[in-house]
Structures are given as C-alpha cells and as structure tokens.
Amino acid sequence: MNLVLLFEQDFIAPGRARLEGRRLAHVAGIHRAAVGGSLMVGVANGRMGRGLITRLDPTTLEMEVALDQDPPPKLPLTLILALPRPKVLNRALAAATSLGAARIVLINAWKVEKSYWKSPRLSDENLLLQRVLGLEQSKDTVLPELRLARFFKTFVEDELPALMKNTLPLVAHPGAADPCPRDAAKPVTLAIGPEGGWLDAEVQRLVETGFQPVDLGHRILRVETALASLVGRLF
Amino acid sequence: MNLVLLFEQDFIAPGRARLEGRRLAHVAGIHRAAVGGSLMVGVANGRMGRGLITRLDPTTLEMEVALDQDPPPKLPLTLILALPRPKVLNRALAAATSLGAARIVLINAWKVEKSYWKSPRLSDENLLLQRVLGLEQSKDTVLPELRLARFFKTFVEDELPALMKNTLPLVAHPGAADPCPRDAAKPVTLAIGPEGGWLDAEVQRLVETGFQPVDLGHRILRVETALASLVGRLF
C-alpha cells in the first residue's frame, strides 16, 4: 500500500478522515504508523497528498488530510479482457489498474466457462476492492471504469464501435502475422482472450469491427503478465 | 500448465515417462487427461513434443514420449533482482522464468530485510519448483540459471563485471533522468531494487560498474508487473 485511498464516507469532518478495518490493519501492522507520523493519501477520483496521524488506537486511526497533488495521468487504454477464472480475476484487475488502464471491460468468450460468471468475485464489492488495491499499489486515485459484457456478440456489435472510436484496436492472437506494435502514438483498445484463446470466429468478428490481430511471441504468459508486457511495449 | 516438464528420473524406459504427485493431479484434474489422449511435454533443458497417455490410475500416469521440437529461445536477459519478500518471491521467479529470462540473480540490498534470506522459500526445492512452474506456463524447457548473491558489494565487485560484459546494463531507479529504452538491440542486464528502492549509494555503485539508471514512470508497480512491463518494452 503506497497510498491510502480515501472515500467520501471516510471523512468525519472537512480535512479529517478516519480509517478502520483493512486499511487500518495494514498501516498499523506493515507501515508501523504512529501518532505524529504521516501517510501518503488520496481521495478516490480526486487529489493526493499527506495524512498526518492525530489519533491511533486498535480500532481507529484519524488523520488530518492535506491534498496538494494531482494523480498521475491514466494510460489511454481500454482493455477488453475475456473473463478470467475467478482465481486469476483478482490479480488481473489489480494489475490492469496498477498499470493505469483507463477502462476495463470483462467480456464473455466461447472458452470462458459459464460458471465464472456466477463467481462471488464478480460482486460489486470485490470488483471495487481489486481496483482499489491496484490504485493503492501504484499511487493513483482514479478508478478505471469497469463494465461487464455478458454477451460477446451484443457487446461487439452495439457498444464496441463507440468505445474504440479514435483508438488503435488490437486483439492479441497467437500466430497472427503481425507482432504487437511498439510505442502506440494514439489511444489503444486491446482485447485479450481467455486461457484457451479466442475462437477464430471471435477474432474474425473483432477484425470485421476494425481490430488488428497481433502476435505476442512463442511464450504463453499468464494474463496479468501478458498484460503488463503489452503495456510496456505499447506506451 | 501448458507443458508437462519431465526430468530424467521421470523416465522408466527410453521414451516412456511416469508422472505422480503434483503433475499427475494437475493433468488428471484440470486437463481431464485420459488414456489415449496426449499432452504437450518437454524434457528439462531439452526438446519438446507430445506424450501419449498409455496408463492412468489414481496414483500414476504413464506416457509414450515423442520429442520433435526445440524449446523457444531464451531472452538475452540477466535479471539482477533484490531479494523480494517471501510472499512475492515465488510470483517473481515464476514470472521472470515465464518471460524467458536466461539468468536470474537474487541479490541483497540495504532495504532487503535480513529475515528474507532465512525464508524456507529459498530452499533449492522451492527455487526449482517456481522456475518449473514458469516453464510449464510458457511452454519452455530451459531452466534459467539462478544465483543467490548474499553480499551486494562482493557480487557487484567480483562477479557482475564478467556477467554484464557485452550487455546493456540498466538499473531501474525512480526519478532517473532517462526513461527505459525500447527495443534493446543487444543483451540486457537489468537490476530491479527492493520494495523500498535502492539506496542512492547502491545505484551509485552500479553506475560506477557501468549501469545506466532508468526511470519507469509515475506508477509504483509490483515487482512482477514491473518486470513484465520492462521486458515488453526492451525486447
């Protein structure tokens, strides 16, 4: 936790915030926070600064918050991610957020098991928590927009054309003729398939929508590793 | 597991291998392996191919192995990684291996807690297992060379000059004047510091040895995310 992300409900008065639960346990245990010390803080979707700790007991931490910095710019990246299996979802969401993706769409694909869509990890609470963890890691405050696209065809036909407008749309597909480009000079929409890969028909549907298939090399990487590698290459 | 990595002791006869334990549980449970089916296999530090399953019971799987492919080339990358805390070590080793790093050095730094060097995760068995997991993920057979450098100064003075010869030596350091270069045209030696960063004196010592400090941007990334992003950028 390189930044404590604060929400409106954490403020008990203007400029005074209170922590309990997970964040308190972390800053007390790992950061060894103490009264008089200060923490890097930020307000969700707002500015960043320091919190001076004015009270600390086993259940509560209070601080005076001064916000004097803007958060870092988001990457101009819309990530279209085939819904990963639940175990991988948390890591992938936190990694995508920490890398700075502006928007994340979790989409269905033929090789996404139906049961994944029933995972408790798709609760609003967990989808928020994983993004918060990514922001806390990367010292950012701006939550990436998140959408769930339960129906591939509907999303690709009805919503994707508007989302991808004025971007470079790429779909990661092993064996594609072109490698992933470097240093994209414009915003990117990047589609990454499920563990078993996209069906050829799914790639074809994306190509018809304007996407360019790109190859990532011989190695099969975990989704969060592939994602970080692509972001490093593209931006 | 996209490839089952086999070791000499797995062979019960030429071309016949037997699996038990972790690998059996994985291919039986996740891959739903069955007699007559086949698996992608590779021999540690050797060739890759298919294994035709000839016997499967709850404790043993046997297969006939035919090896007809070379493993993918390693990345010309020596990674000098400040020893991460134990929880992070496994992920970082598996990720570095899956990305194809040819050599990994786990090195001490001022901000590496001494207790990390006593972690059971530094056992030979675990250090091998994490690299095997990375190879199984990325369909590779060649174990990256691994060294433990318990003493920063000794390693940097006595061993590093030979290791980094004819490579581009880079040290990741937030706030460095230069960004990380793209598309390195030669092998790279890449030093990544601990969670709290390198001391200035440590960076200085590396600079005196020939390293160039490079900045990675505003965001603080987990070591395995930073690593993947740098590899995507450099290669």
Structure description:
The structure is a homodimer of 235-residue chains. Chain A is of the alpha/beta class. The first copy, chain A, folds into two domains: 4-69, Ribosomal Protein L25, Chain P (Beta Barrel); 75-234, 3-Layer(aba) Sandwich (Alpha/beta knot). Chain A is 31% helix and 31% strand. The first copy, chain A, has six helices and 13 strands. In chain A, strands 9-8-7-12-10-13-11 form a seven-stranded parallel sheet, sandwiched between helices. In chain A, strands 1-4-5-6-3-2 form a six-stranded mixed sheet. In chain A, strand 2 (11-13) and strand 3 form a beta hairpin. Chain A is elongated and about 60 Å long. The two termini of chain A are 24 Å apart. The model of chain A has no long low-confidence stretch (mean pLDDT 95). At the A-B interface, helix 2 and helix 6 of A face helix 2 and helix 6 of B.
Could you name the key traits of this structure?
homodimer; 235 residues; alpha/beta; Ribosomal Protein L25, Chain P; Alpha/beta knot; 7-stranded parallel sheet; 6-stranded mixed sheet; 31% strand
What is the number of independent domains of chain A? 2
- Report the β-strand fraction of chain A as a percent range: 25-35%
What structural class do helix, strand and pairing data of chain A support? alpha/beta
Overall spatial form of chain A: elongated
Trace the largest sheet of chain A across and list its strands.
Answer: 9-8-7-12-10-13-11
- What is the top-level CATH class of the largest domain in chain A? Alpha Beta
State the major sheet of chain A.
7 strands, parallel
Provide the residue-averaged pLDDT of chain A.
Answer: 95
